[in-house]
Amino acid sequence: CVPRTGTNSRRDYFEGLDGFGLQPKASSHLTAAEISELIGEEEFRSHYTYSFRRNPLEFMVSWYEHSIRKADASDRDAPTKMRKGFTKWINRINDCSDVSPHLSNHIKYWQDEGGDIIVDDILEFDDMKGEFLDVVARHGGDIAGDFKHKARSLRSKPFMNYYNDTTAEIVRNRFALDAEIIGIPDSWEGW
Questions:
Q1: Could you give the CA distance from residue 14 to residue 160 in angstroms, rounded to a whole number?
Q2: How many alpha carbons lie under 13 Å from residue 46 in its C-beta half-sphere?
Q3: pLDDT at 116 exceeding the cut of 90
Q4: At what angle do helices 7-14 and 128-138 cross, to 10 degrees?
Q5: Is 154:184 a contact under the CB 8 Å cutoff?
Q6: CA nearest 190: which of 55, 3, 61?
Q7: Contact assessment for residue 118 and residue 65, using Cβ atoms and an 8 Å cutoff
Q8: What does the alpha-carbon distance between residue 57 and residue 160 come to, in Å, rounded to a whole number?
Q9: Across-strand partners of 121?
Q10: HEC profile for the chain?
Q11: Euclidean distance between CA atoms 36 and 183, whole angstroms
């Protein structure tokens, strides 16, 4: 699952339900190819698979805010330094090859080794709760449980307010392969 798309919220929804053999949370962000290799291609193909995608401009702000929340507690000034430095953070990601692999095209989460998309559906994060509950209902699940998005972004301003023309273009370029292969929904602000 693509990070910052409600992965742990969906896992928590299923915890404790009969018939769901969940893997440890450490495996939450495996690619479809990694999961297929782990459980075997035949087993993988026997299950309905889906993932969420998120507007990369919103995704990068969410990742940045996540980094602020997870900043080293020993550095009391880390959140303030990071909050003042979104532009520097984006520029660093653009200039470095050693940044987290999560901060690149999301299509790699859905492809096999040959580049074919092997998940059944790629859903939109904009309506994560509705899309997820629809998937559960379509596949015979009980949607009576209460679904909560646990790590929801709590930003104080719209995500596009973090960007200037240069940083927005850096992100658009970084995620250009996603746009080329799976397209861009009209609803994606700023794209």
A1: 33
A2: 5
A3: yes
A4: 40
A5: no
A6: 55
A7: no
A8: 7
A9: 50
A10: CCCCCCHHHHHHHHCCCCCCCCCCHHHCCCCHHHHHHHHCHHHHHCCCCEEEECCHHHHHHHHHHHHHHCCCCCCCCHHHHHHCCHHHHHHHHHHCCCCCHHHCCHHHHCECCCCCECCCEEEEHHHHHHHHHHHHHHCCCCCCCCCCCCCCCCCCCCHHHHCCHHHHHHHHHHCHHHHHHHCCCCCCCCC
A11: 25
Instruction: Report the first-to-last Cα separation within the chain, whole angstroms.
Output: 22
* The one-letter amino acid at 52: F
Q: Which residues of 47-74 are buried (b: 16+ CB within 10 A; e: fewer)?
A: eeebbbbbbbbbbbbbbbbeebeebeee
Q: Tokens at residue 57, please?
A: 């401009």
pTM of the prediction?
A: 0.76
Contact 33, 118 (CB under 8 A): yes
Closest CA to 61 of 92, 83, 31: 83
- Residue tagged 């059944």 (tokens): 120
pLDDT tens track for 87-111: 988 988 787 765 666 677 888 889 9
Residue 155 CB partners (closer than 8 Å, separation 6+):
61, 65
What is the rounded CA–CA span in Å between residue 2 and residue 44? 18
Q: Could you tell me which residues are beta bridge partners of residue 187? A: none
